[in-house]
Amino acid sequence: MPLDTAAMTTTGGQLSRSLGVGGNVLITLSGISPASSVFILGGAALAGYGTGVFWGFLLAGVISILIAFCYAELASRHPIAGGDYSLVSRVLGPAAGSAVFFIGLVSLPLIIAIFALGVADYLGVAIAGLDPLWTALVVIVLATVTACFNIRTNAWVTGAFLFVEMAALALLAVLGLIHIERPVSALFDPQALDLATGGLAPLGIAGLVLAVTQGIFSYNGYGGAVYFAEETKNAKRAIAKAVLWSAIITVLAELIPLTAILLGASSLEELFGADLPVETFLSGRAGETVTVIVLIAIALAIVNAIIAIALQSGRLLFAAARDRALPQRIAAPLATVSPRTRMPIAATIVMGVIALAACFIPFDVLLNATGSTLAFSYGFIALAALVVRRQTSRGDGVGHAASADSYRMPLWPAPPVLSLVAIATIFVIGILDPAQWLSLGIAIGIIGAGFAYFSLYLRRSPATLHLLAGDDDDDEDDEEIA
């Protein structure tokens, strides 16, 4: 049976194909949360890499667009819920798919926990005495419940929150650009704070590469559009647009405010030496009252991101269950869709429970467990983007000829090749830095567990292997909404 047919006839109903490109982009951008990325990751980058943030985030933006090209072409050929897992398993095979499934199964709930544990820090400016753990638990429960509503409701909810955080980013950009203290050329020579002298010193190549890595991590999430492929109209055309628009908007929404801060800060030394550089800049230019309001907006942005990631994580588990990549007794309830909301409620709740449990894991362990998995996921996606056209030319079962409306990235195979080179560079830097060994080791262990799961269980399931080898061409005639 063709895979897309299986997708549309899952026990319990089908997902609601009711999102346009705009609705998909709203949810995807909410999961990225550009505002919290600028305040948290961007602020850490300013403290560590100084004006190198300009070049680091600019180069990271180029790499992110290249990876977005890979996602766009893969998703256009395989417009199926499940994100990276669905794409990789159908192009590189179920063994690689199992590894990517384990990455998502572990990292998505842990990311939710990390975000949730940080909400109290920002809400604390308005509500004193919030306990981080209890705040996180309440936020995750509310986000999981919201993620069980129908997809259009979630698009409206996340869109409203997203408007607030984009307004905060616009404020940062305006404050920097109306108080320009130095020319753009001052950013061309990367410099960072020298702790020994308190002045600025040239940033080395290693530091610049780490700034690029920070930027890639900050922009991460545009591939989340793929999770909603079965809920997006005209998916073969629309998903590619949603991925690319999400990546472009994210890069601009983060790079412009950070550049404005670098140009508009009264003193770079004071900016880079502050514990919270972005908040320090905002307070100095807009005052304490505005800063408090913006920090509350950042708390809302984090909650918004948790809702969006809860939506993604539920679809990951739903897709794997539907593919029979889990034991039947576990898969059957997880592969069902609510007949009322047409949402994978059981799968969403299970992932929410895992996220709740993750809140009790020490915070540094959470960070290490998620730190290096992103590079591995991107590596699988870039490799799949290289392989998919070769499968097409050979006429393999999973590499059926692309239809006329399938997206084809420009300059192939340059985007996936350059992406793999960038990812390999990140790995080399990580291996040379003992501080990253634990994070790399945990990521390798997760991937190893995925391959072991395939070897010990999944490859003994002929039905699953046959399903993953099917033709998942997206037949719009079969996708009309009742």
UniProtKB/TrEMBL annotation:
List, alphabetically, the InterPro entries matched. Answer: AA/rel_permease1, APC_superfamily
Give its localization: Cell membrane
- Record-linked Pfam families: AA_permease_2 (PF13520)
Q: Which UniProt keywords apply?
A: Cell membrane, Membrane, Transmembrane, Transmembrane helix
What transmembrane ranges does the database entry give?
Answer: 25-47, 53-74, 95-120, 132-149, 156-180, 200-222, 243-266, 286-311, 345-363, 369-388, 409-431, 437-458
Q: Tell me what topology the record assigns in the membrane.
A: Multi-pass membrane protein
- Principal location class: membrane
What is the protein name for this chain?
APC family permease
